[in-house]
UniProtKB/TrEMBL annotation:
Domain JmjC residues, every copy: 122-294
PANTHER family with a match to the protein in the record: 2-OXOGLUTARATE AND IRON-DEPENDENT OXYGENASE JMJD4, ARGININE DEMETHYLASE AND LYSYL-HYDROXYLASE JMJD
InterPro entries: Cupin_8, JmjC_dom, JMJD6_ArgDemeth/LysHydrox
Annotated SUPFAM superfamilies: Clavaminate synthase-like
Name of this chain's protein: JmjC domain-containing protein
One annotated GO biological process: epigenetic regulation of gene expression
Xref: PROSITE patterns: JMJC
SMART domains according to UniProt: JmjC
Protein family (similarity comment): Belongs to the JARID1 histone demethylase family.
Source species of the chain: Olea europaea subsp. europaea
GO MF terms, alphabetically ordered: cis-regulatory region sequence-specific DNA binding; histone H3R2 demethylase activity; histone H4R3 demethylase activity
């Protein structure tokens, strides 16, 4: 018996959809959708694709051939993912074209299929503007933050592995017909969007409410390939699962909501661009996952608790190694992010110096502050903050050039969502000086714990 298919992913013309409608129908409800008509002017759709719709291998190899990339062997499982290797883009393309030629000659599919994944293209080629992120996906706290800061600074973990791996969550994927991605929910339980520059993809989705059906009894291991024979016997709920299926065509963008498990198959030679991202609508998913992974990291080393000098530090270190960030990284991120929202709010509500329309951005900024505050309250209840060593001095932060750049980037991004990009939106220093006098007097200027962050946001909201 095949999969039970129950749900249908809507297809909507992105040009006719307002930002507010997208938020209400898909972000808030956490529902998938395919958007059309948003890639018309993308450089990637011209440079990377031949007239017959195939990938332009010669162009990709000539201009980007030297990049080192991660390539998955779709025929080889390694733990919960496919086995990965590193090679140059031109080596990858050579293997792809040889394989396609061999397939044409023999008529067989071959058994080794290579899939280029997670290529940090934007970070590597910032001046080659391959595409512009559609406004629906611009309220992206993750990539906005990573454009100015790093998430985790421990030299033992991600920095050591590779600077670029942690640098952003904007990727290019390229794979021949038949390449695929095993069943998974996205990193940090973020949203993702994925755009087909050429080719087609088949998506199989499982809503979060049915997640337990693809896990074993202990909720430890999950299904790798939904078409594998063993699924029914190893995962007893599997047959009850009701899947959503859809085909994403060339020049279409799919929105993948938080926590939806999905498996993806390339039906033709396909090049796609995808981002992972989170914002005020799904930040609670990120925190819930981090908390769950923290408990797992703790449980794993419980037996050395009594002989360890700094057991909590070790748990946080392991959490960062597994999840890409730990509680403190997430906390620092939330403090900087809230503070930048406050700066933006002050600029927007200072009517004397108002330089661009604030009517739509102010509610978004207030929503951001409130959703961050909710998470800070939850963080506080974990009680891990006594000796965390985290201190963020807001006066110092305000003097920091990187923070000012972060505030400006945020202002420009939120301006662009509401199509205010032509007008000046940079942070006004004079407004900040006014703010400093009035604000720090009653909020204090140091943030060390989630409790401090809650108080800080309370004060910030009073200004609105
Ligand atoms: O395109 C693929 O193979 C996988 C993409 C994916 O899982 C995602 O965008 O979340």
């Amino acid at each position: 018996m095949g999969l039970k298919i129950g749900g249908e992913v809507e297809k909507v013309d992105g040009k006719l959809l307002s930002y507010t409608d997208f938020v209400e129908k898909y972000l808030v409800k956490n529902q998938p959708v395919i958007l059309t008509g948003l890639m018309d002017h993308w450089r990637a759709c011209k440079d990377w694709v031949l007239d017959n719709g195939d990938p332009n291998f010669r162009f990709l190899s000539t201009y980007f051939g030297n990049s080192r990339v991660q390539v998955a062997d779709c025929g080889m499982r390694e733990f919960t993912d496919q086995k990965r290797m590193e090679m140059s883009v031109s080596e990858f393309i050579d293997q792809w074209t040889q394989l396609s030629a061999a397939r044409k000659d023999s008529g067989s599919d071959g058994n080794s299929l290579l899939y280029l994944k997670d290529w940090h293209f934007v970070k590597e080629y910032p001046d080659y503007v391959a595409y512009s992120t559609p406004k629906f996906f611009c309220d992206d706290w993750l990539n906005l933050y990573l454009d100015k800061y790093t998430m985790h600074n421990d030299p033992d973990t991600c920095q050591n592995r590779n600077e670029i791996i942690c640098s952003d969550y904007r990727f290019v994927y390229m794979g021949a017909k038949g390449t695929w991605t095993p069943l998974h929910a996205d990193v940090f339980r973020s949203y993702s969007w994925s755009a087909n520059v050429c080719g087609r993809k088949q998506w199989y989705f499982l809503p979060p409410s049915q997640r337990h059906l693809v896990f074993d009894r202990h909720m430890k291991s999950s299904v790798y390939n939904i078409f594998e024979e063993g699924c029914k016997s190893n995962f007893t709920g599997f047959e009850e699962a009701i899947w959503w299926e859809c085909t994403q065509e060339k020049n279409e963008i799919i929105f993948v909501p938080s926590g939806w498990y999905h498996q993806v198959h390339n039906l033709e030679d396909t090049v796609s661009i995808n981002h992972n991202w989170f914002n005020g609508h799904n930040i609670s998913w990120v925190w819930d996952l981090l908390l769950r992974e923290y408990h797992e990291a703790r449980e794993y080393i419980e037996d050395i608790k009594d002989i360890s000098d700094n057991f909590e530090g070790l748990c946080q270190r392991n959490l960062a190694a597994n999840a890409g960030m730990n509680f403190y990284d997430f906390f620092v991120f939330m403090v900087r992010f809230s503070f930048a929202n406050l700066v933006l709010l002050c600029n927007l509500t200072n009517t004397k110096k108002l330089s661009w329309s604030s009517s739509e951005v102010v509610p978004l900024v207030i929503f951001n502050l409130k959703s961050t505050q909710c998470i800070a309250l939850e963080m506080e209840s974990t009680g891990q903050w006594k000796n965390s060593g985290v201190t963020i001095d807001l006066r110092e932060t305000m003097e920091d050039q990187t923070f000012m750049e972060f505030c400006n980037l945020m202002a420009r991004t939120y301006g662009a969502i509401y199509e205010q990009s032509e007008k000046k939106s940079d942070t006004d220093k004079a407004v900040l000086e006014d703010m400093e006098l009035s604000f720090f007097d009653f909020s204090g200027s140091r943030i060390c714990t989630p409790e401090d962050l809650v108080t800080f946001i309370d004060c910030a909201l009073k200004l609105s």
